[in-house]
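Sharing a chain and its predicted structure for anyone who wants a worked example. Both blocks are below, sequence first, tokens second.
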Amino acid sequence: MKYDWEEMLDRLEEKDLIEFLPETLPEMDEVTRKRIEKRTLQKIRKERNRFSRKQIVAVLICLVAVLGIAGREPIQAAFERLFYYLPGAGMYVDEEGSTLYEAEIINGEFTENDIHVRLKNVYAENHTVNMEVEMTGDLLELTQEAYEPDSKDKYEQLEEMYAVTIEYDGKQDKLTHGNKGALVEDKDNTYVITRYRRDYQRYVKNAEQTYVLHIAGFENALSFRLTANTGKEQPENIGASQTKNGITVTAGAEVTEEGIWFEYYVLSEEVLAETDQTHRFIAISLPYEYFQWNDVPEAELYQRRYVMNRNGEMLYPKGLYFHDNLENGKRILYEGTAEDFPLTFYQAAFTGVGEERGTVKIPVPKTSEKLEKTIDFPYGTVTLEQIQTKPADGVNELEIIYRIQPKEGKRKMYGVFMQVQEAVQKEANELTIFPEEDGTYHFPAKISAETKEITLELYDPYYWIVDDYMLVIEAPNETK
């Protein structure tokens, strides 16, 4: 849901802003207003700069007031519903009038001809049904040409071999996929697709009914029923819940014939590298107080998040194929039964990503020059110590040497993104990953040989949020 609101902000034109802005904002106390402003500004990415930050905050405050949320419950709770959507934890009818439907899975998977077929991530919003089909097994043998990463042939063959039709409302139509992906394995010098997933969307007049998916080549079918749900389940009702430093971790589990389906969610006003789509793979989420992967003990490296049974024994996932990424969390199938309860869920310290930016002008030396420049961030200080220049192939190769000093407190900075504005080659996100043995970081860049001064931009500092979490799930939830 939060992405719907971000897209709405992108589409707004000046006349729309004026229409939403009354002469006076709705009455509310200053504390409430500041909480809304803080939460909203943290959620809107800085590159969305078509409008001023004050305009965007004013628009959202007005929308909340116009929709009547403030009269029924606290504004803070309303914003949590607008910006958070918890798949598997309950659907709701939002204040914009969009009806969301949750799925009751009738037949969610089957195995036939040594191929396992699974239905995932099913829900509907208004008249659009969303679903994902995943297949595992020896699906298709590839030629060398079809194996190439940019080859379209393999997807065309898969789509033809395993065409999917949807049956509902007394009719049957072929589905065309949106996003897709395939896993190829080398089996005795033969390339074989062993996993194939594809997302589907279907517009329907009436979402609240039963659907059947037929896949070419299989007698079995997948099926589900969609039902509108007007009640939003609160995070604390998912199962166990714990809040530290403004971050809530909540977890629950249900027992099925397959094993224990465990799900957890992380709700936070600040960006967390572990859950944010933008930073998940580019910020370095190191365990607390470790600056190098090689320094992390193996036991700690693989136990930053785990589930234990009542006897203190680790539970193990059934495999990557039973692992769903959900917005703000994950859903994982573990080996286990009801006898394993109560379960204990452990989550190590998170990595937060700030929104602050700082720039500094640095003259380009002929060879090397010491620096004494500091850039202060909320959770640490960056000290620039030296800049080195080395001519190479018509450009100058720069190396900027710096240190990071964390501040005292529950949040400790240990990294920062950097970019030289005059660089001849810019990456979308540039950062130095690990420090040298002496604790210094070395940031490289290439500039034109004519450049006499650079502007170094430091942005999105990342930091440890030092508390960990320990949740006890006393009993399984009712099977959905």
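Comments welcome. Residues 1-26, 39-57, 63-96 have pLDDT under 50 and may be disordered.
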